[in-house]
Design goal:
The chain is of the alpha+beta class and about 190 residues long. The strands form three sheets. The chain has a six-stranded mixed sheet with strand order 3-4-5-6-7-8. A two-stranded antiparallel sheet has the order 1-2.
Length: about 190
């Protein structure tokens, strides 16, 4: 019996999950491999399902979108839950990504960076604070915000170094924040929270 267990362990050691490339994932999306109603994203080679949106999440996303629309008027394009092509094996769909240019600039391919990425989080908070944060930092996204609905605050991450951000701010409703790409545009944190 010990031999069977030993050989079973050896066989288990040979089993590894397949890591998808961004090109393979995009091809599967293109040919309709996934049902259209399923929300997915590719993170570090893994195809992950995205949680359905609660009414709190949807309202918070709309509020942030409305407020940032008044900041990013010319020369920027706000993408709502659309892909970012980050490296060869990741294609997250952040709640908001502010990219330079206009929509037609991305007709042939998704943007590969953003000046600001925003995630609205409640049930996904730990995931957004850890795995998504590491992904965005590793791909040098200069500024990452988490609208933290669980603790009713805004988390601001700046200055990516490796898989971390050097600067981390926890802001409450009475505080103000200005995006790095528009430092003259101060926003009340209360205006970003439902």
């Amino acid at each position: 019996m010990g031999l069977v267990l030993k050989s079973q362990r050896s066989a288990d050691a040979l089993i590894h999950p397949y890591r998808w490339t961004r090109r393979e994932y995009e091809k599967m999306v293109e040919v309709g491999f996934f049902p259209p109603e399923v929300r997915l994203e590719l993170i570090e080679g893994e195809i992950l399902t995205m949680a359905a949106q609660s009414s709190h999440h949807a309202v918070a996303l709309s509020i942030v979108q409305s407020r940032l629309n008044s900041v990013y008027t010319v020369g920027y394009y706000m993408r709502i839950q659309m892909p970012l092509a980050l490296g060869d094996n990741s294609e997250p769909e952040p709640d908001i990504a502010i990219v330079r240019g206009q929509p037609l600039d991305y007709y042939e391919q998704h943007p590969t960076t953003a000046v600001l990425v925003v995630e609205v989080a409640y049930s996904s908070l730990e995931y957004d604070q850890q795995r998504k944060l590491r992904l965005y930092a590793r791909h040098a996204i200069p500024e990452y915000w988490i609208v933290n609905l669980a603790e009713y605050r805004l988390e601001v991450y700046r200055e990516p170094v490796g898989e971390l951000y050097r600067l981390h701010l926890l802001l409450q409703g009475a505080d103000r924040v200005a995006p790095l790409s528009h430092p003259e545009q101060s926003i009340s944190v209360a205006d970003l929270l439902p």
